[in-house]
Amino acid sequence: MKVSAALSFLLLAPATAFLAPRPPVASVVRGTSALFTSPAASDGSILDDTPTDSASSVASRRAVLSQTLAATASSLLLSTLGASAANAAEPATVVVAGATGQTGRRVLERLAGLPNTSVIAGVRNVDKAEKSLSESSTVVRGAMVQKVPSLDAAGVELRKLDVADTTESMAAALAGAQSLVIAVGFVPGNPLKMNAVAHEVDNVGTCKLIDAAKAAGVKKVVMVSSILTNGRAWGQEKSPGFVVTNAFGNVLDEKIVAEKHLRASGMDYTIVRPGGLKAKPPTGALKISGEDTLNAGEISRDLVADVCVASLTDKKASNKVLEIIEDEETGPKVFNGLNM
To answer: What percent of the chain has a predicted confidence (pLDDT) above 70?
Structure first.
């Protein structure tokens, strides 16, 4: 019975509706009900509680029952309101680290469109990020030329969050967040510095960010990594995908350290390992595979963002590694959750 119906029934139903049919007078046992125990007489004796048909007796019983029903209804209402308040969905606060990157800004855009969700963009420079997120441009990122679309970030809070900072300062930036999406990664550039930068960002910096999330009380972490991150463990170190990707700063070897750190953190996690990233919309259906199973394939960043957002709340993704690519033999489909 719904609460509103229950209250109406309790408050509006005739008092006799809650009374069992009265047995014959001779069958009634005295003093059996604490609720209807007879009152004491002025001389200390117990008044006879044998039912009578007098109007005063009926009125008295109805008055007692009315008070009981009112108290019951009041108790039910208060407990229901308390349960509703406890169960009401509080606004979820999600931080996106690396929010100005190609994948991070797509995640940010999707989260900003969700109801009852507070979104924080974790960026290295708030002023620059505010401008870059609102403008479309073509940028050179290391060895890559990318078209960056503008983003409607209305309602999104920008906070300084740099993996080069201390764990304490990052924990302060994550204060109040329930979830974190890690979409940070080094950008290939100077060949003489790639190894050092990949180590500082994808390994040390990301591990510090994970520690900061735990210190801040974050409950769920979704981390964007890469297929073949754990390639050495299943004999893929000589596969073309591993050799080419790891040539950039040994980045796969650095990422696996951060992955293991997250898995050992005790927080609920989802590690999303995409194939080669494409800036264009998907041309094939999303394919989700198990851990250490894919050694080739590409995927649109749009789908990566979809999977990241879905992983925040989908229980099937809890403490899982998801390897994702596009199935080029099947046409693109509208994303409809994590079908695993």
So the answer is: 68
The distance from CA 161 to its chain's CA centroid, rounded to whole angstroms, is 20
C-alpha–C-alpha distance, residues 270 and 284, integer Å: 23
Spell out the residues 6+ positions from residue 135 whose beta carbon is closer than 8 angstroms to its own: 150
Among 337, 226, 244, residue whose Cα is nearest residue 291:
226
Positions of the chain with pLDDT lower than 70, given as ranges: 1-91, 136-154
Count of C-beta atoms within a 10 Å radius of residue 117: 18
In the chain the first and final C-alpha atoms are separated, in Å, by 37
pLDDT of residue 244: 96
Q: Record the tokens describing residue 229, joined without a space.
A: 């991150």
Q: Which residue has the tokens 């950008």?
A: 187
CA atoms within 13 A on the CB side of 148: 23
User: What distance lies between CA 104 and its chain's CA centroid?
Assistant: 17
Query: Residue 203: exposed, middle, or buried by beta-carbon count in 10 A (0-12, 13-18, 19+)?
Result: buried
Q: If 0-12 CB within 10 Å is exposed, 13-18 middle and 19+ buried, where does residue 85 land?
A: exposed
Long-range contact list for 4-7, CB < 8 A, 24+ apart? 6/76, 7/73, 7/76, 7/77
Is the full-model pTM beyond 0.85? no
For the stretch 106-126, pLDDT in tens is 999 999 989 999 999 999 999
Helices (H) and strands (E) in the chain, counts: 10, 12
Q: How many CB atoms lie within 10 A of CB 51?
A: 15
